[in-house]
TrEMBL record:
Membrane topology: Multi-pass membrane protein
Subcellular compartments: Membrane
Protein name, as recorded: ABC transmembrane type-1 domain-containing protein
InterPro entries: MetI-like
GO BP: any one term: transmembrane transport
Record carries keyword NAD: no
Domain ABC transmembrane type-1: from-to ranges: 14-89
Organism: marine sediment metagenome
Entry keyword set: Membrane, Transmembrane, Transmembrane helix
GO cellular component: membrane
Transmembrane segments: 6-28, 33-55, 61-88
Amino acid sequence: VVVVVVVVVVVVVVVVVVVVVVVVVVVVVVVVVVVVVVVVVVVVVVVVVVVVVVVDVVVVVVVLVVVLVVVVVVVVVVVVVVVVVVVVV
């Protein structure tokens, strides 16, 4: 009878320990997966924001350069026209 009680107690303890270990492993795996997913999402968001900012800056610089070139061309044309008109008159 004592041997049966000891065996039952040992089996119950082993089962409880195994269940606790399995639960802890599952919780750790879930936490690691969640952390990895959060890190990946943060990295993707940062990369997208950086790309959008860089593209915006490039677009603004290109627009400014185009506007500057147009202004320079218009000024040169106006100066040439004024010089031609003055020379002709």
